[in-house]
Amino acid sequence: MLEIRNLHVAIEEGTKKLLNGLNLTIRDGEVAAIMGPNGSGKSTLSYVIAGKEDYKVLDGEILLDGKNLLEMEPDERAAAGVFLAFQYPLEIPGVATMTFLKAALNAQRKGRGEDELTTPDFMRRVKAGAEKLGIPQDMLKRGLNVGFSGGEKKRTEILQMALLKPSIGILDETDSGLDIDALKIVSEGVNALRSAKRSFLVITHYQRLLNYIVPDTVHIMLKGKIVRTGGKELALELEANGYSDYVTNAAA
Amino acid sequence: MVAVKETVEQVKQLDVDQYRYGFTTDLEVDKAPKGLNEEIVRFISAKKSEPQWMLDWRLDAYRRWKTMDEPQWARVLYPKIDFNDSYYYAAPKKNAAPKTLDDVDPAILDTYKKLGIPLREQEILAGVQMSKVAVDAVFDSVSVVTTFKEELKKAGVIFCSISEAIKDHPDLVKKYLGSVVPVTDNYYATLNCAVFTDGSFVYIPEGVRCPMELSTYFRINEKNTGQFERTLILAEKGSYVSYLEGCTAPQRDENQLHAAVVELVALDDAEIKYSTVQNWYPGDAEGKGGIYNFVTKRGDCRGANSKISWTQVETGSAITWKYPSCILRGDNSRGEFYSIAVSNGYQQVDSGTKMIHLGKNTTSRIISKGISAGKSQNTYRGQVSAHRKATNARNFTNCDSLLIGETCGAHTVPYLESKNASAVFEHEATTSKISEDQLFYCRQRGLSAEEATALIVNGFVKDVLQQLPMEFAVEAQKLISISLEGSVG
Amino acid sequence: MSNITPLKTEAEQAMIAQGASIAADRKPAFARFADSGLPHRRIEAYHYTDLRALLKNAPPPAQAGGKVTIASPLADIDAYKITLVDGHYEASLSSTLPQGVKLQSVSTLADDGADEKGVLSPDPVIALNAAFSESALDIEIAAKTELTKPIVIRIVTTGAHASYPRVRVNVGDAAKAFIVETHEGGVSGSLIDSVFELRLGDHVEIDHLRLNLVDQSATVLTTFGGAMGRESVYRGHNFVMGGALSRHQIFFRFEGEQSKADISSASLLNRKQHADSTLVVDHAVPECQSREFFAHVLDDESTGVFQGKIIVRPGAQQTDGKMMSRAIVLEDGATMNNKPELEIFADDVACGHGATVGALDEDSLFYLRARGLPKTEAEALMLRAFVGEALEKFEHDGLRDTLESLAEAWLKARSA
Questions:
Q1: Which of A148, A171, B199, B264 qualifies as a cystine partner to B229, CB 3.0-4.6 A?
Q2: ipTM exceeds 0.95
Q3: Chains with at least 3 CB pairs less than 8 angstroms from chain A
């Protein structure tokens, strides 16, 4: 279970707050969607959960299964079960995707006190995962994300998530830059990972993605806080009316 | 990846400025008196029972050296060297002319074992993954043993110490010694001509592909002793050889001088691949001690279609002054230089290459990756020139520098000189730091800051690591990460 | 360590003899020059332009009162004009300056580069100018002045003598100006050693064109030193065609944050011309951006030299510096020496340089010839495009037309 309480965040003290008293709880197995206009703080939230150093947490707490994430390094958070699928996955030249996957998987297993995977076992898992996502083998030998198309990058993110088996998967605008076929493949990949223990936080602009990854709850975010919470029908309502109601309400 | 993991494991086991090879071996040694003069030159020559021509050559070099000035153009700073405050010859006493490995002082064998250098042929053969590597082990001023000599002899390959070659193959030595690096080439090379003590000699006959990797492992052990090695590799028409060189020294507070000369000659259609993993003692975390590494390495692509390729991984030495070069004399000849230079602590590196295009259709390629951390200064200096008759000469140069931390420096000084209208040179260079975003991405996936840095650095140097023979690539990768240890906060 | 050179060359001896009669306040600068003598190839900064070997003689310093017989190449441009004849200000050939611009010829001692606060760097050619320069022309552009017309400073040489022009321009905050420096005249035996200092305040926007059109038999050494405050823009344009032996030094330093400098240059050389462009861009403060683009076309037996260095000082984080040098060698025997350098002491930077040396692209030439263009025309077309890259950032139409026609004339002479 992920619990965020009264979270206040800025780039540094005294500057404009990007998150302003945000509260959010995601139960085990729940798929929560956050929607909101540009600049509402959605990506900031995902980075703060994952532990990016560019942000300063002024107040509040983030607990994952009762553990205080804010006291952990980014890699410790990852080992604790946080996975962030980046909106813009980074390119790392010279480091083969396969190499990276193995280094990450074993680092996390070690962080949790588990044994490393044997190479054949690892290979089997990667192959199976890659096949499901339509990732060709030769792509795994190329430098991580180097020269990958937008769709290939997003599929690789999902493959990483499948291998790392997080307790919460955060998808930051995973639908951006995807055509309809890629969107379907990525969504199927995510849906296959849904389980009673694993929760998801799906960040998106558009309702479209939520047709494929059907959420249990939908939260509307504005100016750094959740302004409304509802079921999946809330997304459809937004699609029809846009954010303008909320924007004017918030301004009032 | 296994290597990355092991690297990080090792990094964790070590203190900030720990150097793995810093132990000393206690031995009885035969030394020349301290200082440098004509008598010392005669002493060295006599110790080696050299013929008169060799002594004359040394004395001539010594006299010329006395009239020369130390070069000033490199970006390295060090106090003036007192050449009289050093020993120029030191040899383990018990090792006087060993015939077989069994005659070698067990203390020396033990040293190499600690360094991980296999000297017993059966040990090498017993290894499952290792391919065969013949080793010439140079300990201070002398070669203590050369392995696989007999097997190489069957293929017609000569692999021995330069001292033996002077005695056993005087015609070859006379013909080629000093033919690539002239006696008066530069201050340190001239000094080397006068006082060199040992090194390796390789001769590959026409049409022979050397049946195994050849290597020389240099170890400085004695205190206050300079090492002046001399290596000569001759590849006859249509032959091929891959040669590796490794170096280490004990941890000492004073600086020690290492001034080597390496000459390579490739005749028509011959190819020489020369790889170095340089790990001399770099000095401690405060910049005390360490080797001054002033080295002249040059290859002469004398024949048509010949090829010389230099690959270097430089992680050691307090000061590195080194420019492995290619003279592209033969038409269609090719020169390559692949380099990784890592500097940390107070290390100073000024290294690069020269590609001198003389023949027609000659090509060269330079890939240089510099990584600076700590308070180190790391300079790439490279010259590419096309002479008037070097029609269609081509060069491509890429040099990238990576900075880790704000107290180090990375510098790029290329010289491109063309006198030919059809020559085409392309040079590109970049300097940057490891991006915070890349680090965060890796850490989000569970890698620690150190692991993430090691991974990204390994990616940065991959193009060059690929040029090394397999076993050395793994070794080099570990070394790079160890060298950068303590550089990420 | 000083390199001991017991023997002075003929030119050095002549200079030392001339130095005996200079004013007392010039003596320290002269001593600094005399100490090193003419720089030679073992001095790294002069490796490719060995003045000790190349400078055969040292003509006597010029007297005031030389007669200008040549027309300005920029006569048609509507501009404020200032003329220096053999290094001396000539009021009769200068126009009235607009409000906000003041001019004064002073005989105070000129900076010889030894003062760290100055805009110049220690250099024997600058020390020589400081020793022999009798007067300096000070130009003051007041804060907030926005000039609508360029200021053209003509530096004319009238005979076989040595001249040491010195111009110092101070630009106040938030001023906008276009300054042109033309080097003209000269004969075989002329030696011109000119120094131009430009100090720019904050929030300024400056265009600066330097034109070397001296006679192809003269020797010309020019130095430009610039320093700029914060949030400013400097655009430097350099054009080299003249001189048997020439060297063009640029020392540019960022002293205020968030400023930008864009420096470009085109050199068109033929016969036995030797032209050296030496550039040092010094990022002494954070968050500045520099772009350098240098193009050389080398015909016959000419020699081109480009030495460019980007320095990023400790703490100058977020520096963005990119330097590019391109050279076309048209004939075997023509020489290009290229030395682009990076010297970086801060980690959070994005710096790079590129350099190419080569012939015109064979495939493109073939394509043009297959469309019916004769070889020289095809070459001229490609060279025009090549040089055009260095001129394209030029925003003054009249001046750009002039430069283009100068380049055109050079190309025509080549194919003739």
A1: B199
A2: no
A3: B
